[in-house]
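During the reporting period the student researcher (J.K.) took over the structure-prediction task from the postdoctoral fellow and processed the backlog of single-chain submissions. One of the processed entries is reproduced below for the supervisory committee.
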Amino acid sequence: MASGASLVLGVPPHRLWARRPGIYEDEKGRTWVTVVVRLSPSQRARSRASPGGTHEPEPSVTVHMWQMPVHPQEPMSPSQLTLSRLPLVWQLYSGRRYRAMDSRLWEIVSHGQIDSTEELVLTELPPGNG
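J.K. obtained the following structure tokens:
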């Protein structure tokens, strides 16, 4: 397999807990680092907006996380992590989805390996897609 190619893995983590901004820990004690957060207008919001209307598209969030070791640090309290748009906890839900503590659903776009790094890509689903 060529270097840089994505290899599909088995089951993604069952739960991810925020430990510090952009750093999560799974049920096996592995750390996941948020490496890319991409905001874009959601498809649903674009189709709802009428021509010349004043509706602002609802942002869709896509998160790329890599499983990698980080220097150990004390976890922050949930109140210190509230400024992030990302959930404090992701729980594997049905199919290829996670449910956040606030009940938002996130679709698993991909879970694979690039070179020696495990990657998880999640996209927030618009409300009502549960």
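The committee noted the following: The radius of gyration is 16 Å.
J.K. will present the remaining backlog at the next meeting.
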